[in-house]
TrEMBL record:
Signal sequence bounds: 1-21
Protein name, entry field: Membrane protein YdfJ
Record's subcellular location: Cell membrane
Topology with respect to the bilayer: Multi-pass membrane protein
Example of a GO cellular component annotation carried by this entry: plasma membrane
Keywords: Cell membrane, Membrane, Signal, Transmembrane, Transmembrane helix
UniProt organism field: Capillimicrobium parvum
Chief localisation class: membrane
Protein family (similarity comment): Belongs to the resistance-nodulation-cell division (RND) (TC 2.A.6) family. MmpL subfamily.
């Protein structure tokens, strides 16, 4: 605070520097499905060693004629012109002939060429993808042209998404209602946006050192925007309370950071550790998602405890400046009557009737959780992309002309020096398998040490039947032949990813539960409260899983979120949701229990501790949760079904945690447990270090007098 201008300038220089570096380097993302030890990874390793051309990034470019055959007359001339422009585009290594018997549909109306890029998939930038799509523009006046695969995906990733703007608009409204002034509203919003910008820029820069999944920046935006505003909200609320209690600006700011700032570091650290625990899966794409999201959260915490105090010092006593007349008076009345009406009255009502509250809360959560028992992890394909997008049009045209399985062929790699008779026998076995549309002739490697067969399923990559086909080929078709062959390709990798996540999810859950138990044990010196918190968080996350399953997998209300048909639950979504939501729900748990613990230390009355804790935190936690829910729910409007799943699932979980759990279950359970809520064995009490979430209270803070602030009294 004493050096606010220096610190502010350093912060802004760091943010601008990261932004310039990110802009210069460009976005570099890749959905790397490397899965050590799986069949798809062994197949991929064989391709890298013996068929390097097959491992390069490639995408189909599909041409469809409105009239006549695509390979004749003006239609063919348009395709030839597009091929010429594609071959001249930067980053394009090769463009295949679209006029072979295998690449022209039976009716002659649809054909496709495969564009092979110079580098790996993660090397493709948005600008390069745009150039490749633009190379087909001349042909679009004559034909329907669509670029699928990674090129179409990268090009579509730049389409403007209103989700962030919608989330910000709702956050502005909530903050105005909460604080009643433009300045108080603007500080958390400005802090959150600057922190988000710095976090995303850092993720972009690190994307050139580590693999960042395509969905990583969007997921980081979703989380960073929510927690960044929320953390600043908690600090601004405490600062305003301190000023209202008679503290000077010079005393309030350091005391605010020493209390609420300490809690923000504790809560944010929990989120970061929970996200980093995803590395325990040993799955690169999941670990990368965890790291990238953790970076954004860590920067949000730094912005709250470093940048925000500078801004509060600069604003000084004008924290309530530019009041909105009606809202400002309402906010003042709410703050003054906090212990009498509203949340205090609700807390006393639950305390008087804990059993009905407990039963009602459990009934709601159990009802929401029921669909989760039919949850099936799968993979999304381009058939779930937004209608009219490049990859969706390409997917639909390929399905129409060559069958849905052409969008995700399986690659069967045979190591060693396979004999021709063995390959013929393997091809015959694959051709006769149920669910196989066609099998290409075996292609030997140039060194003669491997062979490759391409299997086209009859069903789309994301179809459950395709998943069953992969397992059937491995266990019932290839294994009986005695030939050592591995089934790979993007579709098989998706099947293996779902299986690996299902196997390793319990490990991540156990680690996060153990970590949260230890942290809460140290913070609140109770055995019962950490167990209660873990159970409540699991219930709220289970309810979110149930809603996501009901909507996306079962199709209930699917049209309301912009989809026409049910889509698979992407395999890594539940795992990521667990780590994110467990960390976020711990935020509210920490702030609530901190208030309850403070009153327990003062009164040793369990009922008073619960009632006063809920009364003092109800308004600010509700505002924070409403902001978080609004930000997450806004991303349901994103065109990507995977983003929709994250947005809906996390919005539901936070809403349930802030209402059913915090308003019904937590107070009811703590009231029923009474003094047992704070029980800690004496022997453990002696051995545990003393940790205070909001810092130890002090009679005074020695703070050097700051430079004079703008004149004006407190509102």
């Amino acid at each position: 605070m004493r050096r606010r201008w220096i610190v502010l300038i350093c912060c802004l220089m760091a943010v601008v520097g990261l932004g310039l570096a990110a802009g210069a380097l460009g976005t570099r993302t890749s959905d790397n499905f490397a899965l050590p030890g799986t069949g798809s990874q062994r197949a991929q390793d064989l391709l890298v060693d013996h068929f390097p051309a097959a491992t390069k990034a490639s995408s189909p470019v599909v041409f469809a004629a409105a009239e006549g055959r695509v390979d004749r007359g003006a239609n063919r001339a348009a395709v030839d012109g597009a091929l010429k422009d594609l071959r001249a585009a930067d980053d394009v290594a090769d463009v295949s002939d679209p006029f072979t018997p295998a690449t022209v549909s039976r009716d002659g109306r649809i054909a496709y060429a495969t564009v092979t890029l110079d580098g790996e998939p993660q090397d493709l930038t948005h600008a390069a993808a745009d150039d490749i799509v633009a190379a087909t523009d001349a042909a679009r006046s004559q034909l329907t042209v669509a670029v699928g695969g990674i090129v179409g995906q990268q090009a579509e990733a730049q389409v403007e998404d209103p989700s962030e703007a919608i989330g910000l608009a709702i956050a502005v409204i909530v903050l105005l209602v909460t604080f009643g002034s433009v300045v108080s509203m603007g500080l958390p919003l400005l802090t959150g946006l600057i922190g988000l910008g710095a976090g995303l820029s850092l993720v972009t820069v690190l994307g050139h050192l580590i693999t960042v999944p395509t969905i990583g920046p969007t997921l980081g935006t979703m989380i960073g925007l929510g927690v960044g505003i929320d953390y600043a909200l908690f600090l601004i609320t405490r600062h305003r309370q301190n000023l209202a209690a008679g503290m000077t600006v010079a005393e309030s700011i350091p005391r605010t950071v020493a209390t609420s700032g300490n809690a923000v570091v504790f809560a944010g650290g929990t989120v970061v550790v929970a996200l980093c625990s995803l590395a325990l899966t040993g799955i690169p794409i999941v670990s990368s998602l965890g790291y990238s999201a953790a970076i954004v959260v860590a920067i949000a915490v730094l912005a709250a405890i470093v940048l925000l105090p500078c801004l509060m010092a600069l604003v000084g006593t004008k924290i309530n400046a530019l009041p909105i007349p009606g809202l400002h008076r309402r906010a003042q009345r709410a703050q003054q009557r906090e212990g009498v009406h509203g949340w205090a009255r609700w807390a006393r009502a639950v305390a008087d009737r804990p059993w009905p509250a407990l039963i009602a809360g459990l009934a709601i959560l159990v009802a929401l959780m029921i669909p989760v028992f039919s949850l099936h992890l799968g993979q999304a394909d381009n058939g779930t992309a937004a209608k009219g997008s490049e990859q969706r049009v390409a997917f639909d045209l390929l399905s129409e002309g060559f069958g849905p399985g052409s969008n995700g062929p399986l690659l069967v790699a045979v190591p060693g020096a396979p004999q021709e008779a063995d390959l013929t026998r393997l091809a015959a076995a694959l051709t006769g398998a149920d669910g196989v549309a066609s099998v290409s002739p075996p292609i030997p490697a140039q060194d003669g040490q491997a062979a490759l067969l391409t299997v086209t399923p009859t069903t789309a990559p994301g179809d459950l039947a395709t998943e069953a086909l992969v397992r059937r080929l491995r266990n019932d078709v290839i294994a009986p032949t005695g030939i050592d062959a591995q089934v790979g390709g993007q579709t098989a990798a998706g099947v293996d990813l779902a299986a690996e996540i299902s196997d390793r999810l319990p490990l991540v859950i156990a680690f996060v539960l153990a970590l949260s138990f230890l942290l809460l044990l140290l913070a609140f010196r109770s055995i019962v409260l950490p167990i209660k918190a873990a159970v409540m968080n699991l219930l709220s996350i289970g309810a979110a899983y149930g809603v996501v399953t009901l909507v996306f997998q079962e199709g209930f209300g699917i049209s309301l979120i912009g989809l026409s048909d049910p889509v698979p639950i992407v395999s890594f979504v539940p795992l990521m949701m667990f780590a994110i939501l467990f960390g976020l729900s711990m935020d509210y748990e920490v702030f609530l229990l901190s208030a309850c613990h403070e009153r327990w230390i003062e009164t040793h009355d369990p009922r008073t501790a619960v009632v006063d804790g809920i009364a003092s935190t109800g308004r600010v936690i509700t505002s924070a949760a409403l902001i978080m829910v609004s930000v997450f729910a806004a991303f349901v409007g994103n065109a990507d079904p995977t983003v929709k799943q994250f947005g809906l699932g996390m919005a539901v979980a936070v809403a349930v945690d802030a209402t059913v759990v915090r308003c019904l279950l937590v107070p009811a359970v703590m009231i029923l447990l009474g003094r047992s809520s704070w029980w800690l064995p004496a022997w453990l009490d002696r051995r545990l270090p003393h940790v205070s979430v909001e810092g130890a209270p002090a009679p005074a803070l020695a703070v050097e007098a700051p430079e004079p602030v703008a004149a004006g009294g407190r509102d």
